[in-house]
Amino acid sequence: MAKHLLEVNNLTTSFKIDGEYFPAVDDVNMRIRENEVLALVGESGSGKSATAFSLMGLHSHARVSGEVLFQEQDLLKNNERKMNKIRGGNIAMIFQDPMTALNPLMKIKHQILETLTIHNTKRKSEREAYTIELLDRVGIPRPERVANAYPHELSGGMRQRVVIAIAIANRPKLLIADEPTTALDVTIQAQILDLIRELQDDLGSGVLLITHDLGVVAEMADRVAVMYAGQIVEMAPVKELFTNPQHPYTRSLLNSLPSEELLGGKLHVIQGVVPALNKMDRDGCRFAPRIPWIGPEAHEHKPELREIAPGHQVRCTCYKNFYLDNSIDQKDMERRVEAGQMDGKKGASVSNE
Ligand SMILES: Nc1ncnc2c1ncn2[C@@H]1O[C@H](COP(=O)(O)OP(=O)(O)OP(=O)(O)O)[C@@H](O)[C@H]1O
């Protein structure tokens, strides 16, 4: 079995609210192997970005504890100088909005050259040629012209390709992609996902893919971690998660995907939102307030993630008592996962109404 590339143990990230710290990431454990895509999925406010930012040491005002083991170092113990060397080098990040990742005042080629220079790869003349090669590699037509352009002169899809070129410039071992296609048109989204998958295969990198979009998960992930209110509530290989989901939250997310049978019909949605950090009961099951028809006896006190099948973990026993009236046809789901065709891009969220 391949070695873990990244091992996250008991990661806890707390933000200060009215003078008190509250965890937004609460005792999270996860592993990513080489050449594996782990998707971290959950609705807005569940703690996905806070997790990614903590791994990269980008939370200067938060209190972060636990271990983030990467290449035999605990990244949380690194100073800023060491982290700068790792960021953009062995670990790269792709963010949702390419405009915030790029410097609007700098030509594209200088932004790529900068990352190559920081990480000291190749001689100057080689770096310049490699810049064009990278733009070509991410599918940018006429790369010499784009190299001399400023970010605002490019379309959103082209800008995201540039961000990806910068991300892969130093052949990272780990890629963290936080909603990499959310800001793009649907047709461009598919191209960018294909590109990330292709490059990841080439480099053999591990990927942490953060998304609220189950269509993206089905297309890209090998394993999935479902996050709710700062905790992972279910983790499983992708096919197992889509065909045999257990946690009520996972099942609600899946059930809000339009299936062929349900299209045009009514989708089952769970009311409510992720609770605010300073307003949640941290001792009980955090999803309990959104499934009030399930009695307190069905939930555990301080529920832990437990393995229910090889590689499949679930938090809290309430899943044993949870039913959905119009739950998704499993055969339809299996067929669509096999075909890599989850087209519910718009439906993959729990209702906020
Ligand atoms: N800098 C901060 N200070 C205080 N609270 C924060 C800060 N950043 C995030 N939070 C809170 O932490 C929780 C998790 O936020 P986070 O952005 O990680 O969620 P998310 O799952 O990534 O959502 P989204 O998809 O909307 O980005 C939320 O309650 C959010 O309000």
Automatic annotation (TrEMBL):
<dbReference type="InterPro" id="IPR003593">
    <property type="entry name" value="AAA+_ATPase"/>
</dbReference>
<feature type="domain" description="ABC transporter">
    <location>
        <begin position="6"/>
        <end position="254"/>
    </location>
</feature>
<dbReference type="Pfam" id="PF00005">
    <property type="entry name" value="ABC_tran"/>
</dbReference>
<dbReference type="GO" id="GO:0015833">
    <property type="term" value="P:peptide transport"/>
</dbReference>
<keyword id="KW-0472">Membrane</keyword>
<keyword id="KW-0067">ATP-binding</keyword>
<dbReference type="InterPro" id="IPR003439">
    <property type="entry name" value="ABC_transporter-like_ATP-bd"/>
</dbReference>
<keyword id="KW-0813">Transport</keyword>
<dbReference type="GO" id="GO:0005524">
    <property type="term" value="F:ATP binding"/>
</dbReference>
<dbReference type="InterPro" id="IPR027417">
    <property type="entry name" value="P-loop_NTPase"/>
</dbReference>
<dbReference type="InterPro" id="IPR050388">
    <property type="entry name" value="ABC_Ni/Peptide_Import"/>
</dbReference>
<keyword id="KW-0547">Nucleotide-binding</keyword>
<protein>
    <submittedName>
        <fullName>Peptide/nickel transport system ATP-binding protein</fullName>
    </submittedName>
</protein>
<dbReference type="InterPro" id="IPR017871">
    <property type="entry name" value="ABC_transporter-like_CS"/>
</dbReference>
<dbReference type="GO" id="GO:0016887">
    <property type="term" value="F:ATP hydrolysis activity"/>
</dbReference>
<dbReference type="Pfam" id="PF08352">
    <property type="entry name" value="oligo_HPY"/>
</dbReference>
<dbReference type="GO" id="GO:0005886">
    <property type="term" value="C:plasma membrane"/>
</dbReference>
<comment type="similarity">
    <text>Belongs to the ABC transporter superfamily.</text>
</comment>
<keyword id="KW-1003">Cell membrane</keyword>
<dbReference type="InterPro" id="IPR013563">
    <property type="entry name" value="Oligopep_ABC_C"/>
</dbReference>
